[in-house]
């Protein structure tokens, strides 16, 4: 057997899990290079040629002249088109999928990312910023309420099927414990979490390239929190 078409560069983070979820759900063969942030592998010149933003994830499609794709939303979109899965054909359902994908990329991800940063990295490293914490936690909660309202009477975010919008949104929204954002009273959202938690492909994907149970609140996170904050200590001191 030759090499698989798709080569994935990723790490065990919310954005990093997204392409893994697609590839596992669609049962597409792929191989993987784990990127080690502690060694700054995401900033290495060879990697920056693939991903000018110096972040993960990235895929390279060997069957398409080693075409490289960065930005996790664009990666999911590319894979969905290449394999004809998880992106509806119907124009309106397709547009809805892309609307909710953009909502995740531009809203849920950045806001919950900042909520995490100020509480899980800046504060333990001696930078307390209550007004930033309030702003990002409140905005994250508001966005999760938008998801909850959208999921009223529906199983999935777009059209009537499971799509790349669900795949993109799940790792971020599901990490509400790690972001210290409450989902109390958001019954539709919690039911959607339960539907996705139960999928074998998701369970597998969340262990690749490594499991991070602290993100989902499945373990005492104090050791994980300390280790995570220490990895970013030098970035904080540069601010
Ligand atoms: N908008 C980008 C964000 C990617 C991103 O922020 N990745 C983080 C991990 S979730 C990363 O690579 N962090 C390492 C760094 O900032 O150096 C995407 O969705 O792909």
Kindly describe this structure.
With 239 residues, this protein is α+β, with helices and mostly antiparallel strands. The protein contains eleven helices and four strands, in the order E-H-E-H-E-E-H-H-H-H-H-H-H-H-H. It has helices at residues 14-26, 45-48, 72-83, 91-122, 130-150, 164-174, 187-197, 200-205, 213-216, 222-231, 233-238, and strands at 6-10, 30-34, 58-61, 67-70. Strands 2-1-3-4 form a four-stranded mixed beta sheet, with helices on one face. Helix 1 (14-26) packs across helix 6 (164-174), helix 4 runs antiparallel to helix 5 and helix 5 (130-150) packs across helix 7. The longest helix has 32 residues, at 91-122. The protein is globular and about 50 Å long. Glutathione binds next to helix 1. Residues 13-16, 37, 42, 54-56, 71-72 line the site of glutathione.
């Amino acid at each position: 057997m030759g090499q698989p078409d798709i080569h994935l560069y990723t790490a065990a983070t919310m954005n990093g899990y997204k392409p893994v979820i697609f590839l596992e759900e669609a049962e597409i063969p792929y191989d993987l290079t784990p990127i080690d942030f502690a060694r700054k592998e995401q900033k290495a010149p060879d990697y920056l040629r693939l991903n000018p933003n110096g972040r993960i994830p990235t895929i390279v499609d060997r069957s398409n002249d080693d075409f490289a794709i960065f930005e996790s939303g664009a990666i999911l979109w590319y894979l969905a088109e290449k394999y004809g899965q998880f992106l509806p054909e119907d124009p309106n359902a397709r547009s809805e999928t892309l609307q909710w994908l953009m909502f995740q990329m531009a809203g849920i991800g950045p806001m919950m990312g900042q909520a995490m940063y100020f509480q899980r990295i800046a504060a333990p490293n001696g930078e307390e910023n209550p007004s930033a914490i309030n702003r990002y936690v409140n905005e994250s909660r508001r966005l999760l309420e938008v998801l909850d309202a959208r999921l009223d009477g529906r199983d999935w975010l777009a059209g009537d099927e499971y799509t790349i919008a669900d795949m993109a949104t799940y790792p971020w929204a599901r990490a509400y414990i790690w972001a210290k954002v409450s989902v109390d009273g958001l019954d539709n959202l919690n039911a959607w979490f339960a539907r996705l938690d139960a999928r074998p492909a998701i369970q597998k994907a969340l262990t690749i390239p490594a499991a991070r149970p602290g993100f989902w609140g499945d373990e005492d996170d104090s050791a994980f929190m300390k280790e995570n904050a220490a990895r970013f200590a030098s970035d904080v001191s540069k601010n």
